[in-house]
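Weekly modeling sync, notes
Attendees: S.R. (lead), two postdocs, one rotation student

Agenda item 3: backlog of single-chain predictions. S.R. asked that every request posted to the team notebook include the full sequence so nobody has to chase files. The rotation student volunteered to paste the first one in as an example of the format we agreed on. Action items at the bottom.

Example entry:
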Amino acid sequence: RQGPGPTWLEPSSACAAHAGAMGSSCSSVTMSSDLNQAAKDIKAQLATLETNIVKADLEIREHVARGSIDPLAHQRALNAMKTKRLFEEQRRQLIGAQFNIDSMVYQRDQARVTLNAVKALEASSKALKAEQARMDPGKVEDVCDEAAVLADDMRVIGDSLAANYSIGDWSAEAAEALDREYLKFDQELALLATAAAAEKPGAAPT
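Predicted structure, as returned to the notebook:
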C-alpha cells in the first residue's frame, strides 16, 4: 500500500500461523490450549483488533478527504474498507470463541467443585465405615449392660451409706421403751429446775 497510513498491530503469536486466509478464526488454536491462557490470548487479540479497526476507520476518512487531490485515494480508501471489514469479521469470530472459552471455563470450574464435593463425601463415607467397624453392635450392647450394672451397684452403695444405723433390734417395743426413758429424763429435769428456783432468796413457795 502506497502513501502514508497507520501501522497495523501484528496478530498474536498464537494466531499468526492461521491468519493468512480472510475470515480465519483463532478459536481452534485457543481452544486447544489451556483454557485460562486461551482466554487471556483472546482478550489481548480483541484489544488489538479494536485498535486496528479504529485505525482503519481513520485511514478511510483520510483517503476519502484526499480524493479530490490524489487519484489513488479512492482505491486506497476501498482497500482500507476491506481491511476494516476483515478486522471486524475476525473480531466477531473471536467474540464467539471467547464465549465458548468462557463457557468451558465455567464448566471446568463447576466440574472441579463437584469433584471436590464427591471426593469429600467419599472420604467421609470411608471414615464413617471405618469408625462403625470399630463399634461392634454386640460389644456396644455389652458395654451398655455393664454400665447399667455399675450404675445399679453405685446406687445400692449410695443408699447403704445414707441409711440410718441402729444398735440391736428396732421394734415397736424398743421405740416405746425409748419414749418412756425420754419422759423420765424430762421429769427429772423439771424437778431439778423447781428445786433450783425454790432455793433462790425471796422465791415464793409453791
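Discussion: group reviewed the output briefly. The mean pLDDT is 76.
Action items: rotation student to repeat for the remaining queue; S.R. to check formatting next week.
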